[in-house]
Amino acid sequence: MAVPKRKTSSARQNKRRSNVWKLSAPALARCPKCGELKAPHRVCGACGYYNGREVIKKEA
């Protein structure tokens, strides 16, 4: 049978049990132009604006 060679230290054990490894939800920001939720520092998918300028032509 497979048996551990050494005792797992409490620090290693606590690291494994901590919630550090859980994924967090992505941050979202409101587009100042249209108000849709978008990822920060990305072009808005709804209106095509970024930093006050039209980057992608979107049809209304």
From TrEMBL:
Keywords: Ribonucleoprotein, Ribosomal protein. One of its GO terms (molecular function) is structural constituent of ribosome. The keyword Cell wall biogenesis/degradation does not apply. InterPro entries: Ribosomal_bL32, Ribosomal_bL32_bact, Ribosomal_zn-bd. It comes from the Bacteria. One of its GO terms (biological process) is translation. GO terms for cellular component: large ribosomal subunit. HAMAP family: Ribosomal_bL32. Belongs to the bacterial ribosomal protein bL32 family. This is Large ribosomal subunit protein bL32.
